[in-house]
Write a structure and sequence with these properties.
The complex is a heterodimer of chains A (692) and B (323). Chain A is mainly α. Helices cover 57% and strands 5% of the residues of chain A. Chain B has 323 residues and is an all-beta fold. In chain B, strands 14, 15, 16, 17, 18, 19, 20 and 21 form an eight-stranded antiparallel β-sheet that branches. A four-stranded antiparallel β-sheet of chain B has the order 2-3-4-5, with no helix packed on it. In chain B, strands 6-7-8-9 form a four-stranded antiparallel β-sheet, with no helix packed on it. Chain B starts with a strand and ends with a strand. The chains are: A mainly alpha (692), B mainly beta (323).
Chain lengths: 692, 323
């Protein structure tokens, strides 16, 4: 299903027929137009409407709605499609293992990059920087490679079947093959002189992969091995010589030696008759097993002699034997009675540079047009063509976002030109670089899965321009209902100093809990979010409900919350006030208008004590006085003394001053409240003076 | 692989996912609102957790309210009423969806609604059939019932209406198209509105508390084209905004500069004209990075559009629903 590799690269100027000029198709089957994928929903037509919505990362949800009908079937279905790149070769679980495993090497390399660049800003010599950098990249590459599977271990201990030419071991993955290839060409500066030999090794490891789409030396060998059992006189069989020459052409010397020794003249009963012939074959075998090879070391069981430096190597090649390899080739081929003139890639690899390799590769591809090319061959051609953009596009198309996001590090280590190309800001991309773009794309793939979204931030923060923006969006889209996800979210915010995102997340969580009956958790998270506006609302709401319902049961329910609020919220006033407030409301209810009783006097005392108390929130002053209007306007005689009335008037004065301050909280009272309180107080004052 | 998440009931007319993609709200032709929930955050199996009657007539659009204001949706009904519903647990009662507020008007119908969070709080922009745009402001952040009419737009040319279709997340801009009432069918509740180019971008002028047009998204030859849909791409750091406008001809992608010139206008540039959907365009949705545009249309396909490294937009893939 949809394998949408986002962001194909640019392959302008590449005469590859599978890329239609400017766009690399993401599906080899559809070179000239976008692919159409079936979206199976299983509903009975007709379909009335499609509604689309993006979910995590690259996940698209499509609501398929049917026309209303009475057929008893579902009216619609929501289908989710993951547009991330999948790789049939690697299981989802394996992918996740690779994704998690590559985080540490990637992060380490990024931190090294930033420390190196800060060092170079401090004018430490740039050459020093270059010398060290590829070593860091190699370390990174080795870490990544170890995730992609283990190298074939040479089976030295088992008794070898002399007739077994090719060992069948666990199949390597194309992904690892591609990574190795990139490492060989771009990152491993130390092995640059031995590049051909590294390619020979690479081919030994991965030629079997290429066999899936085309005839390779490996597939020839495997095919020949199957026939081997039934062959009597092996040297009379032309394929024997053809296979030997193919193996020699790509430098699999030990295989050649092994095969030569299958020659009939080695048979015990033949040795007597064919002594000369056997001597010749053995001489060839010995010569081949002593062939000079320019490489650091050879694994046990490998044929050839190592030369580390080019001069020594060249001397060995030319010592009395001008065209050693070709001669060898000719000997073998002539022994077989074969037409000499077969191509030989191996000597060319040794003597020529990349340029001629490329032209040779192009020539080979023209000579043998293939119906479908293996993705590794496409990548190889891109690398030999020394076109960074093509290599990127091939990586993206064939191996997906993980590969591009990680392999750009190898490519930038390879050349300054690639470094500039991948890291320069582009207007087309909204001022980000290609490297950043590929990291963003990969981060979105990670974000598509609930098990991998947590590692997306590592890649996002390495994007200077737009990574943080995407990270903020990603975090805001995480659900807050589950505490585990919520805490993880907050932890990520803390790691990357995203305070505003973190407080927004906590605000959403607070409101969620508050509205879903978990008031304590709601208040807690709103406090964490420092959401004063909502906390004030809650405080007022609590006081209101305490004021309204004075049953002990509901009071208890609020008590804990008040305590929670009181410890941090300045405006909440604390329990002390709440108790007094409740008592006051109680006594106010018992007051009967017109009759001076203990109840009315007690209510007036409560009012004064509340207004005197410093823990009474200012926002409650006016509501308290407004609630007490009937006490202030007491008919029979004034309930408040002159000094008490003055105290209340002073509080009113203080309130009107406070109104000018920005943090003043407006209370929800009728507009005439203040004036009616003022009038009542003034009247009371007059009457109290007269009485006293 | 595609995966089936939810089966919807017969008569479902619209659906909408919440901010985290964990809840789905679906409206039906008989006025029911259904809510589907994932069992846990890792699960992809959804079950219906609630079903409530919202209105006598069908629901035509469901919009989730930003999560800072609770788990709530706005339902636009076929007769033009707008109601806000919220999931709450009150006192000892079980979890329920409760009506918070209903906006009704005898003279005009609500056509569309959008929410935006600004510094001062939650705002709701509603487009009415009488040609007015009304902007409401929520008074109490914990209660969805108290709304104050902040602005009733003062710039309507006669006989024209504006329809806000896409609202930028931070409420700085609103997109509007002139909308001409073309046809009133025999069914009095159904009016057809066609939006026509030029498509305009309006900006809210905080200092003077009014909306002002700042840019026009149309080429001279396209004036009068019918507009189907519009979508504002999320901006994660570009120095310009990206807007997709679908007309009956094609999808135009516009870049909108963010620095106003001396007249207060913003620069616009049409960067792509994409054709693919034959017929009417239903919906356009940008992914979270604003790099992929998904579209659906009456040709029954979902198409995905991306730009290559040279800024050239193209159709990347199409999804064709089959049984």
């Amino acid at each position: 299903m949809p394998v949408v590799a986002p962001f194909s690269g640019d392959t302008r100027g590449v005469s590859d027929s599978s890329s239609n000029g400017s766009i690399v198709p993401f599906s080899p089957e559809a070179p000239n137009h976008s692919a159409v994928y079936a979206l199976r929903h299983g509903l009975k037509p007709p379909i009335a409407r499609l509604s689309i919505s993006w979910s995590r990362g690259n996940t698209l949800r499509v609501s398929v709605l049917r026309q209303p009908s009475d057929d008893g079937e579902a009216g619609g279905r929501v289908v989710e499609v993951n547009l991330s790149n999948g790789d049939a070769e690697i299981s989802d679980a394996q992918w996740r293992r690779i994704a998690y495993g590559s985080v540490t090497p990637f992060a380490l390399l990024q931190s090294r990059r930033s420390s190196v660049s800060s060092l170079s800003k401090m004018s430490i010599s740039p050459s020093h920087y270059h010398v060290d950098w590829w070593e860091y990249v190699m370390e990174y590459s080795k870490d990544i490679v170890s995730l992609l599977g283990h190298r074939k271990s040479p089976s030295g201990t088992v008794i070898e079947d002399p007739r077994e030419i090719v060992k069948t071991v666990e199949e390597p993955t194309s992904l690892k093959a591609a990574w190795d290839l990139m490492e060989i060409f771009y990152a491993d500066k130390q092995s640059q002189p031995w590049l051909p030999e590294r390619l020979v090794d690479w081919l030994t490891d991965y030629d079997c992969l290429l066999s899936s789409t085309q005839t390779t030396v490996h597939s020839k060998l495997v095919g020949f091995q199957k026939e081997l059992v039934s062959l009597q006189v092996i040297e009379d069989y032309p394929k024997y010589w053809e296979v030997i020459s193919s193996a020699l052409a790509i430098g699999w010397l030990e295989l050649v030696v092994k095969m030569l020794r299958l020659h009939g003249s080695y048979e015990l009963d033949q040795l007597g008759n064919r002594e000369t012939e056997n001597g010749l074959v053995e001489a060839v075998a010995v010569l081949i097993s002593k062939m000079p090879r320019m490489r650091l070391e050879l694994a046990e069981g490998k044929a050839g002699e190592c030369f580390m430096a080019k001069p020594d190597f060249m001397k060995a090649i030319h010592s009395g034997n001008p065209s050693f390899h070709l001669t060898m080739n000719r000997i073998v081929l002539s022994v077989a009675g074969f037409d000499v003139g077969n191509y030989s890639l191996f000597p060319l690899l040794i003597n020529q540079g990349l340029e001629s390799m490329n032209s040779l590769a192009q020539k080979c591809m023209q000579l043998k047009p293939m119906s479908s090319t293996h993705r590794l061959i496409e990548l190889m051609v891109g690398i030999l063509g020394e076109n960074t953009e093509v290599v990127l596009a091939e990586c993206s198309r064939a191996f997906g976002p993980w590969m591009v996001a990680h392999a750009t590090e190898l490519m930038t280590a390879g050349s300054d030109q690639a470094e500039v190309l991948l890291h320069e800001e582009r207007d087309n991309l909204g001022e980000m670089s290609i490297a950043e773009l590929h990291r963003l794309v990969y981060a979105q793939v990670l974000a598509s899965h609930v098990l991998t979204w947590q590692i997306a931030p590592v890649y996002l923060i390495s994007c200077m321009k737009q990574g943080m923006g995407l990270l903020e969006l990603l975090l805001c889209k995480q659900p807050v209902q589950h505490n585990e996800t919520l805490l993880k979210n907050i932890e990520i915010c803390r790691l990357y100093d995203l305070d505003s995102v973190s407080s927004n997340i906590m605000k959403v969580a607070g409101v969620y809990h508050w509205k879903h009956g978990r008031k304590g958790a709601g208040v807690f998270w709103l406090q964490q979010a420092r959401d004063e506006v909502r906390l004030n609302r809650i405080a007022k709401y609590l006081f209101d409900s305490v004021g309204k319902s004075i049953s002990d049961e509901s009071f208890k329910q609020w008590e804990g919350l008040i305590e929670l609020l009181g410890s941090e919220s300045k405006t909440a006033g604390g329990l002390d006030f709440l108790h007094k407030y409740r008592d006051f409301k109680k006594s106010l209810k018992q007051v009967q208008v017109g009759k001076t009783t203990d109840a009315s006097r007690q209510a007036a005392e409560s009012l004064i004590s509340l207004m005197k108390n410093p823990s009474t929130p200012q926002q409650f002053w006016l509501p308290l006085l407004y609630d007490s209007l009937k006490l202030l306007n007491w008919q029979e005689r004034p309930l408040l003394s002159v000094s008490q009335t003055n105290l209340l008037l002073n509080k009113l004065q203080e309130l009107s001053m406070a109104k000018l301050r920005p943090d003043f909280i407006e209370v929800d009272l009728p507009p005439q409240a203040l004036s009616s309180v003022r009038l009542a107080l003034a009247t009371n004052l007059g009457r109290a003076i007269l009485e006293e | 692989m595609e995966k089936s998440l939810v089966d919807l009931e017969n008569g479902t007319t619209c659906s909408s996912w919440n901010y985290s993609g964990q809840r789905l709200a679906a409206g039906s032709a008989d006025g029911f609102l259904s809510i589907f929930d994932a069992r846990d955050s890792a699960s992809s199996s959804f079950t219906r957790s609630s079903k409530s009657r919202v209105h006598d007539t069908g629901i035509v659009k469901v919009v989730w309210i930003p999560p800072e204001y609770g788990d709530a949706v706005a339902c636009v009904c076929a007769d033009g009423t707008l109601s806000l519903w919220e999931e709450v647990v009150e006192d000892a009662q079980p979890l329920q969806w409760k009506l918070c507020k209903s906006f009704k008007s005898n003279s005009s119908q609500v056509l569309d609604v959008q929410f935006g969070v600004s510094l001062s709080g939650l705002k709701m922009v509603a487009a009415y059939s009488d040609g007015h745009i009304r902007v409401y402001e929520l008074l109490d952040p914990l209660e969805l019932k108290n709304w104050q009419l902040q602005i009733r737009n003062n710039l309507i040319p006669p006989r024209h209406a504006f329809l806000p279709l896409s609202l930028l997340y931070d409420f700085r801009f609103v997109l509007m198209a002139t909308c001409i009432k073309l046809l009133e069918t025999t069914n009095a509740s159904l009016c057809l509105f066609f939006m026509r180019c030029p498509f305009e971008v309006w900006e809210f002028d905080q200092a003077h508390q009014r909306w002002l047009p700042v840019a026009e998204l149309a080429l001279p030859g396209n004036k009068g084209d019918q507009v189907y849909s519009v979508a504002w791409a999320p901006n994660i750091g570009r120095p310009y905004e990206v807007i997709a406008v679908a007309t009956h001809k094609a999808i135009a992608l516009w870049h909108l500069g963010l620095i106003p010139d001396t007249d207060g206008r913003l620069s616009v540039e049409q960067v792509a004209l994409l054709s693919g959907h034959a017929g009417e365009m239903w919906q356009m949705e940008w992914d979270m990075s604003g790099m992929t545009l998904a579209t659906s249309g009456s040709d029954g396909k979902v198409r995905l559009w991306q730009s290559n490294l040279n800024g050239v937009w193209h159709e990347q893939a199409a999804l064709e629903p089959t049984t």
